[in-house]
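Intended use. Records like the one below are meant for learning the mapping from a protein sequence to its folded structure. Do not use them to infer anything beyond what is encoded.
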Amino acid sequence: MAAPPKKILLQLDTDADPSTFDGVVAVDAGVDQLFRHGGVTAKTVTPLVHGAMFTRGGDDLRGTAIFVGGGDVATAEQVFTAVTGCFFGPVRVSVMLDANGCNTTAAAAVLSAAKQLDLDGKTVGVLGGTGPVGRRVAEMSALRGASVLLASRDFSRAEQSVAAVRQRLGESPVTMAVEPIAVDGPAGLTEMLRRCDVVISCGAAGVELIDADSLASAPDSLRVAIDLNAVPPAGIAGIGVTDKAVQRGSRIDYGAIGVGGLKMKIHRQALKELFDSNDRLLDAAEILEIGQAIVSG
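Structure written out for the chain above:
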């Protein structure tokens, strides 16, 4: 019996210098050869994809896969679309999108919340919802049956982000459950927390979005609070970066590192599954499913 093909991963990064983080995770996931390309755009990606598609045939195609990353999620999404547009018939390879860790981080946050309560029919508030991770958290929470309050200081930006979520998922009862809201002061924050069963802070590093007084005055109906900011000050005051299912009154708290262990497991497993076949396309919904299997297993 012929030996299986070596696992080759093309890391296509929209940044000039490909992410070292993503490269290390790929090696830890068992990739045999890692080819890293920086400064990739939708206009320049085609010859790279053709090199992956036309060098192997038949079942050996599953030994090659593509990872699309970079700091600019919107540009990476365009690259992901361009990559898949190169395929035809069975001539294709598996592809994963996780620019800026948007999919794996969001999946870990949503599944951490789901460990504590069934999200179906609950309300999830997403602070910093206009950012790449915030949008994915909103999307994945909606896929789990939650109503979502996607928050921004600027209501028009929240509306634009909700429109982007609906464009990705299509108009459906799921996406109609994602609501834009403005949280531009203490009163707006208090009202949001009053409505939420879960709040997930996805704001920029080092920016406090929930102060200690607002969190302390939140009703007991707020059951889970998750802060994805690992840089001081915390995005949610009083939550430690290493908190993992820490009980505080009626609420359970997670910090960025507390969620990070699950994020890393999801990232590695998703990379491994790229090589199960040559036709996997791993974006938000698919990576959430992989995370769910890890949590359930």
